[in-house]
Specification:
Distance between the termini: 24 Å
Largest sheet: 7 strands, mixed
Radius of gyration: 19 Å
Order of helices and strands: EEEHHEEHEHHHHHEHHHEEE
Strand content: 5-15%
Oligomer: single chain
Length: 281
């Protein structure tokens, strides 16, 4: 839906009834493989310039790519572009403390106010990655523990790289960094191996048009290189299959923090099955 200076897209992989009533542009990821009919006003990522067929390993990236290639050109340079997901929604400033299906629409962010126009980006609050329990570390990251037993005792070692090793692919981030140019590689490796509280997750963000373009150009050039070094046939399970989506999730956070004047903005995690929400500031 239109607003003064902001376009927010909501990515979904399936038809969810309550999304039809929201004042957002809904885009269906991996549309090429969907057999069910979607509402006529929803966007499909398998038309025009697209990489929809890569959705299995790319996840939300196929929708972000589609927005970049097909939507940006239709709006002026003063437009902001936001990414949200079917359970995560950006909130306006004076949002209600309790959000349900009945008031969700009224609490959605729909413009960037004048006082924030000097920012380039809005991101969710950073995730604290420290404090894993002994058994969790032993179960999820035995290779890391064997290499450096201090991981058990030193929370400063609970960094972005360890988190990726635990929940996605061991050595995956460092391998992906190998196809970056030298300066970018050094900065990215420093980011993933030293930061414990600077990872803004979920691949949701709001950027000025120019910055959105720059982020996508940099991200998809890197991901294209990553495709040459990872064998997708060897990726299994939820944590690995969408490998390129998870790589980009870390890169988005890194790039935005390095290249923009950004501000943390609140969003709500909404579970439509039980009509409950969790506001994250």
């Amino acid at each position: 839906m239109e607003s003064k200076n902001l376009k927010i897209y909501c990515i979904t992989s399936k038809k969810i009834n309550y999304l039809e009533n929201l004042k957002l542009d809904i885009i269906v990821g991996g549309s090429y493989s969907k057999s069910e009919d979607m509402p006529k006003n929803w966007l499909l990522d398998n038309v025009n310039i697209n990489i929809s067929k890569k959705n299995k390993n790319f996840g939300s990236l196929t929708s972000i790519y589609w927005i970049w290639k097909n939507e940006l050109k239709n709006y002026n340079d003063n437009t902001w572009f936001g990414i949200s997901h079917y359970r995560r929604f950006w909130l306006k400033e004076n949002y209600d403390k309790i959000i349900t299906l009945n008031n969700l629409n009224n609490n959605l962010l729909n413009y960037i106010s004048n006082q924030y126009l000097d920012y380039d980006a809005f991101v969710p609050s950073a995730q604290n990655l420290t404090g894993y329990k002994f058994m969790k570390l032993l179960k999820k990251s035995p290779k890391n523990v064997l290499k450096d037993p201090l991981i058990f005792f030193d929370k400063n070692k609970h960094n972005i790289n360890l988190h990726f090793d635990m929940f996605h692919l061991h050595g995956g981030l460092e391998k992906a960094a190998s196809v970056m140019d030298k300066e970018q590689k050094n900065d990215f490796l420093d980011y993933i191996t030293t930061q414990t509280e600077l990872f803004s997750p979920f691949s949701i963000f709001i950027l000025k048009k120019e910055k959105f373009h720059e982020l996508c150009k940099s991200t998809f050039e890197w991901i294209s290189n990553c495709e040459n070094i990872f064998d997708t046939n060897k990726l299994h399970g939820h944590g690995q299959t969408r490998l390129f989506d998870f790589l980009a999730e870390r890169y988005f956070s890194f790039w935005i923090k390095k290249n923009t004047n950004h501000k943390v903005s609140p969003f709500v995690f909404f579970d439509p099955k039980i009509n409950t929400s969790l506001i994250i500031q």
